[in-house]
Design brief:
Oligomer: single chain
Helix content: over 70%
Radius of gyration: 23 Å
Structural class: mainly alpha
Number of helices: 2
Amino acid sequence: MQSEASGPQEAATSKRLVRAGLMGLSGGLLLGGLALLALGFYTRLVPVDCLDLSDVQCGFTRDASVSMGRFQTLMGAGLLALGIAGILLLRQPKAPAPTA
């Protein structure tokens, strides 16, 4: 069994496969970051249902909800930034324009 690519064609195929996997990972980070960002905003902006709770319990639940929403928003923005950075790093470089 040979562990290295035996020819330039296999090396190019291997490189493309790694690049495609990393692009998929970056896309997953983008989608996960977007979902977490949306969930964080939703958690922070939607009022807490305090129907069956006392004033102290309602205050604690409201504070916990705001803190959790803040954390989700921050982590979602971080994942989104990582996904964007990954895609920008993996882009194909543009070929230089031919000079006439």
